[in-house]
Design brief:
MaoC/PaaZ C-terminal domain-containing protein, single chain, MCH/BMMD, alpha+beta, HotDog_dom_sf, 7-stranded antiparallel beta sheet, MaoC-like_dom
């Protein structure tokens, strides 16, 4: 699995973005090592994520990934997808957890450009709204929402 973007995939400026354009990311496997690394990074060692014996007693029946790890995966997968944008500023997420993400799940993020408009407060920048779904190997939507992203317009030739 490659951990860097395809150098042949251009990063789009706001004025190159087309509403309705969509993309599905490469796959990401949620492993025990990755869940434990996330627990270490965040300090969240809640047993449903880190203790299989405990997790078997929960409604999930097994360990599950942290919900915010799912959001982090979705954000990271977007940067490795064929539809990419010039570096900009995240304006926030609206995000829902629909189903658990279990160890061994392989997830992808499917996203599209819902709307695109120029920024009223920052000349030279545009805002895109990216409705997104994190989907497991069974085709189930495990998390969904939208990302609001500010990206630059193509610089004008001087």
């Amino acid at each position: 699995m490659s951990h860097s973007p395809d150098p042949g995939t251009p990063e789009l400026y706001w004025d190159e973005v087309q509403e309705g354009a969509e993309c599905t990311s490469p796959e990401y496997e949620v492993t025990e090592a990755r869940v434990m690394a996330y627990a270490e990074l965040t300090g969240d060692f809640t047993p449903v994520h880190t203790d299989e014996d405990y997790a078997r007693t929960t409604p999930f029946g097994t360990r599950v990934a942290h919900g915010l790890f799912g959001l982090s995966i979705a954000d990271g997968l977007k940067t490795r997808s064929a539809l990419r944008f010039q570096p900009g500023m995240s304006m926030g997420w609206t995000w829902d957890f629909a189903l658990p993400i279990k160890l061994g799940d392989k997830v992808r993020v499917k996203f599209r450009v819902g709307t695109a408009r120029q920024s009223k407060s920052r000349p030279g920048w545009g805002i895109v709204i990216l409705p997104s779904e994190l989907i497991n190997q069974r085709g189930e939507v495990v998390q969904k929402g939208e990302h609001r992203l500010m990206i630059p317009l193509r610089p004008s030739a001087a």
